Amino acid sequence: MKLTLATIALVACVALANAVSFNGKLVCFYDSNGALREGPAQFTIADMEIALQFCDHIIYGGVGINPDTFQIMSLNENLDIQKRHFATITALKDKFPYAKFFLSVSGPFDQNTIDKYISLLEAGRKKQSAFIDSARDFLRRYNFDGLDLSFQLPRNKPRKVHSDVGSAWKSFKKFFTGDYVVDEKAEEHREEFTDLVKDLKSALSVEDKLLSLTVLPNVNSSWYFDGPAIAPSLDMINLAAFDFLTPGRNPEEADYTAPLCELPDQNRLGHYNVHYQVDYWLTQRVPHHKINVGIAAHGRAWKMTKDSGTTGLPVVPATDGPAPAGPITKTPGLMNWLEVCQRLPNPSNIHAKGADAPLRRINDPTKCYGSYAFHTADEDGANGIWVSYEDPDTAASKAGYVRAKTLGGVALFDITLDDFRGQCTGDKFPMLRAIKYKLL
Questions:
Q1: What pLDDT score does 177 carry?
Q2: Residue among 439, 435, 368, 369 at smallest CA distance from 407
Q3: All domains of the chain, ordered by start, with CATH?
């Protein structure tokens, strides 16, 4: 794979990160559904206490909004309210007074809700006041320190990585059909979002509460976020710079899901990398210290077919959507670091066959693109899998990038997907540890 001069410079920059005096934030996203999992996958309060030895910000995910009243609502009242999980989590502030606890609105938790959040932007000041008032009251009632806006907004249309001929044909068609428009009112929504952020900040400041923004994967920042206008009202901005490609959005071809640098070959899109996303916000005159780079504690796994080849070298063609769900996450196409680690060659699986066969691991010596692992399809076409993932080493490399760029810190999505029981190497929370040590 060819490296551009910009990429080489970026790698050198990361390599020199240790020479920079730095103490970045470690923001930990917490999916409260982890408390509902069973067996070793269940994330308990004891696990949270270990995580808080590394995290200085916790973002609790999450709550939604009522589509009729636009007030904040629990997405799982049985857990959040009846079992007092909100209060149980924020009660940890007594033991960890340096940590700030945020409540996330929407994120991946409030499913199929794009229209609802667009409706909030279009609702006008009176109805938006209902959202703002309920948010302020919610934070006060459950003792949260701040609110995180992780609004699900319309996302970019998935695009295949075309060959040169395919790319030329696509350009020819676009001459007649124009660009695909995801949101015809994006400019209006951008202004409405700016007004909402400013009004929220005014209301929360009276209560000495904080406000953050999380930019979800594949949401076009230039469409919805006016950086110079909203940055003064935000205490931090978390860039979920991963899942640029997923087996759900891109079922027929597998590729790196969260590269640090631009991949210049194979006609890949130039904005599908961490550096581009960070650079965009910096060019919007957003202060370095407010930008946190999001790292996923999960990988994305595609099902390889007999037509996907045997090398595993991305871009992998002829994939067939998500790989089967793992035993912990139980989500097709998604594997946390532990699930990947347990499939890498080890004494317990070295002779395994079929669905339990070990994956071949390919490391990235450039520190730019990420690691992947794969197992080609069997003769009958079964058991093929290709996964692009983060591990403690790649997470540390990205934390080194954050340090070299003197950004605000790192946001891990999410701590319930880290190996919090230490089942892989014996170290609990290996990704959190790797990030934290690099940020010191």
A1: 36
A2: 439
A3: 5-298+391-439 (3.20.20.80)
